[in-house]
Amino acid sequence: MPQGDTTSTQTVLNGTMSDGSTIEWTDATWNPVRGCTKISPGCKNCYAATFAERFRGVPGHPYEQGFDLRLVPEKLDKPLRWMRSRQIFVNSMSDLFHEVVPDDYIATVSRTMARANWHVFQVLTKRSARMRDLLQSRLRSFAALSHIWWGVSVEDKKFGLPRIEHLRQAPARVRFLSIEPLLEDLGCIDLSDISWVIVGGESGPGARPMSRDWVLSIQRQCEEARVPFFFKQWGGVRKKRTGRLLNGRTYNEMPAAGLVER
User: Fold this and answer.
1) Averaged over 118-145, what is the pLDDT?
2) What angle do CA 48, 26, 253 make, to 5 degrees?
3) pTM of the model
4) CA dihedral sign, ordered 139, 145, 148, 152
5) Model confidence over 6-61: pLDDT tens digits?
6) DSSP secondary structure of 73-87
């Protein structure tokens, strides 16, 4: 799940699924799991945790239990009820491959995505080794589906770059990187077999700065490797002020595989 960013009030108040999202690279969110735990520097200013904990103890609220991880099986069939095609970010408020989520439940989520093949599903994780292992085994039949995109979060060299290699080892048809929040210069990145790259800076209180040179380096590497590049935001305490222009333009490139009409 992306960290250190803001998300729409509509999305988080629903807490499970939202038809509409302010996340620039998706149309909607679906959260059959709620809550997570922090595992790397990118998690430091997690927007989801901050929001969820504000409602801990509020009776009846989706986040009455704060950001404690829990399954939401009653929401598993929600994408099947949406007839209009959407790009759906899976678990914007959690991580499907969290160690507490059972393999059986992950398989059930994957079966829903497979059935709802008029959508595009964007699955993003920091638990890249577990995703790789399951896509190599129990989830292998889902890895080849063009409408399910499998991605990893990348924030730095130490924690982020190894996730890219795990992703490359997974037999996924569409692989993507969410390089957000970008916390340092990543140097030369191996983009072979990567279908899409998103880059963004951290936003909100305590946002850590992102250098323009770091972004330009990734953009140039994507251009050279012919990998679609999406620049999400500069971030900062007031991300609306900093915007998302790079080189005087917006970068909204998307992978062609499995795209629904927008």
Assistant:
1) 98
2) 125
3) 0.91
4) positive
5) 333 333 334 455 666 789 999 999 999 999 999 999 999 999 999 999 999 999 99
6) GGGTTHHHH--S--E
Q: Tens of pLDDT along 169-188?
A: 999 999 999 999 999 999 99
The C-alpha angle with vertex 21 and arms to 75 and 93, in degrees rounded to 5, equals 50
Are 108 and 75 in contact, with CB atoms under 8 Å apart? no
Note the residue count of the chain.
Answer: 262
Query: d(Cα 108, Cα 151) in Å, to the nearest integer?
Result: 19
Neighbouring residues of 79: CB distance < 8 A, sequence distance ≥ 6: 17, 30, 88, 112, 113, 116, 119, 121
